[in-house]
């Protein structure tokens, strides 16, 4: 598709986002050639250290911790994350603040100029276009450190067009089968595609696929693996980190809930240590960053009664972590689940992982062509042996959330999970 006339271009962020969805025939199209071509045209140069973070689960939490710690240390930060929960601006943060609509609109216009100046015009996906706009904004803000969260996979993700000084793979499990493969070996190879020669590569999975280890050796990256090269050990209300040339005692648990978060924090510390010659971080800044980090939708417990939990868990690995967190919360008379998922996810695997923590279910379809229908979710629950009397349907997640809140007693618990879309809708309905 050719660009609209300049005078006919979108005038606001909503218009641009709608326009971006029309530029490529596929919502997801793996590959770096398009991004690199437009990146060269834009002349973007990133001068600061870059930490790139991928992983089946945990990459958002790890990225947020890195931003929080580096800001506590006084550094000017840039953070790129996806997807967003409630507004697109969440994806691009400079000095801890979401960039403005005006800044995004201006950057989108420049990316559009660059891609349409090429012959033929380069058809960018929504994510590729947004990533290039973020790179443009970061380059102009002169950050001290840039944290980039991979959108999908690693090797062929648009974020990987910028070389990482430190690369983090938080975990490796099965997700996005149609793009990354259906084995941990295949997925590990894709995620290891962010590794670079002579630079540190961190793996938070204590049992990394052989493919990831082999790829690190092939490119000449210095691989640090959790449990082998660095450790995180809970010690009551605190925890301890040990890594290459670094030992830190009496660390506070991250403000993000869940026992698994110290593993993500350990990945962040390993990255911070890898950059210590360029960006030293004091013990006080590290502690302040860990206790001050915020990230909605990661085992987020809303204030008030009944207890209300939001979690973006959308694959079996994440659902198992969510189940463990729910089990550790103490007594609740009943747990009400609000479930909405995308049809291309392992719905059966997610349900199997968490059903032991749920007494009553309300399922709802998600919007868009990828959203799973209520009938699909009902069928999955039936296969898992959930009795029909324990299941209700709702026309949408907002209605499902309000229904669960109405049905729950003060001693009960409600958990909404299955997708970023599910959490976003539940958040909106709770206000």
Explain what the structure shows:
It is a single chain. Strand 14, helix 12 and strand 15 form a beta-alpha-beta unit. This protein is α/β, with parallel strands linked by helices. 38% of the residues lie in helices and 17% in strands. The strands form 3 sheets. The protein has an 8-stranded mixed beta sheet with strand order 4-3-2-5-1-6-7-8, with helices on both faces. A 6-stranded mixed beta sheet has the order 12-13-17-14-15-16, sandwiched between helices. The radius of gyration is 22 Å and the shape is globular. The protein has 2 domains: 287 residues, Mur-like, catalytic domain (UDP-N-acetylmuramoyl-L-alanine:D-glutamate ligase, 3-Layer(aba) Sandwich); 131 residues, Protein-Tyrosine Phosphatase, Chain A. The longest helix has 17 residues.
In the CATH scheme, the class of the largest domain would be Alpha Beta
Content-based structural category: alpha/beta
**Unreliable stretches covering 5 or more consecutive residues:** 1-5
CATH fold annotation of the largest domain = UDP-N-acetylmuramoyl-L-alanine:D-glutamate ligase
Mean pLDDT: 94
- Portion in beta strands: 15-25%
Describe the structure concisely.
The chain has 431 residues and is α/β, with parallel strands linked by helices. It has two domains: 6-292, Mur-like, catalytic domain (UDP-N-acetylmuramoyl-L-alanine:D-glutamate ligase, 3-Layer(aba) Sandwich), CATH 3.40.1190.10; 300-430, Protein-Tyrosine Phosphatase, Chain A. It has 15 helices and 17 strands.
């Amino acid at each position: 598709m050719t660009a609209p006339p300049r005078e006919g271009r979108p005038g606001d962020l909503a218009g641009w986002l709608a326009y971006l969805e029309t530029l490529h025939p596929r919502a997801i199209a793996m590959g770096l050639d398009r991004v690199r071509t437009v990146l060269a045209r834009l002349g973007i140069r990133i001068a600061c250290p870059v930490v790139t973070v991928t992983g089946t689960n945990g990459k958002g939490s790890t990225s947020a911790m890195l931003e929080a710690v580096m800001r506590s240390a006084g550094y000017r930060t840039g953070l790129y994350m996806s997807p967003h929960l409630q507004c697109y601006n969440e994806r691009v943060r400079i000095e801890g603040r979401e960039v403005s609509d005006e800044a995004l609109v201006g950057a989108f216009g420049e990316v559009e100029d660059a891609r349409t100046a090429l012959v033929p015009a380069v058809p960018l996906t929504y994510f590729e276009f947004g990533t290039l706009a973020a790179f443009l904004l970061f380059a102009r803000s002169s950050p001290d450190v840039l944290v980039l969260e991979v959108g999908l996979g690693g090797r062929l993700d648009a974020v990987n067009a910028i070389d990482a000084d430190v690369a983090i793979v938080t975990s490796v499990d099965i997700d996005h089968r149609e793009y990354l493969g259906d084995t941990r070996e295949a997925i590990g190879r894709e995620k290891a595609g962010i590794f670079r020669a002579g630079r540190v590569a961190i793996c938070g999975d204590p049992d990394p696929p052989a493919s990831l280890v082999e790829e690190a050796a092939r490119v000449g990256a210095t691989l640090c693996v959790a449990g082998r090269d660095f450790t995180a050990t809970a010690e009551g209300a605190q925890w301890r980190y040990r890594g290459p040339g670094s030992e830190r005692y009496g660390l506070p648990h991250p403000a993000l809930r869940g026992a698994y978060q110290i593993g993500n924090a350990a990945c962040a510390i390993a990255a911070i240590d890898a950059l210590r010659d360029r960006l030293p971080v004091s013990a006080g800044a590290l502690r302040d960053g860990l206790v001050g980090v915020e990230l909605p939708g990661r085992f987020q417990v809303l204030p008030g009664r009944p207890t209300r939990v939001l979690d973006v868990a959308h694959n079996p690995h994440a659902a198992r972590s969510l189940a463990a967190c729910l089990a550790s919360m103490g007594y609740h008379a009943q747990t009400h689940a609000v479930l909405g998922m995308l049809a291309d996810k392992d719905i059966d695997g997610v349900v199997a992982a968490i059903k032991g923590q749920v007494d009553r279910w309300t399922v709802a379809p998600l919007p868009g062509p990828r959203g799973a229908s209520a009938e699909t979710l009902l069928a999955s629950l039936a296969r898992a042996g959930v009795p029909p009397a324990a299941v209700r349907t709702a026309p949408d997640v907002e209605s499902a959330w309000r229904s669960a809140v109405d049905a729950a007693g003060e001693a009960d618990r409600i958990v909404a999970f299955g997708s970023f879309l599910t959490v976003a809708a539940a958040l909106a309905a709770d206000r």
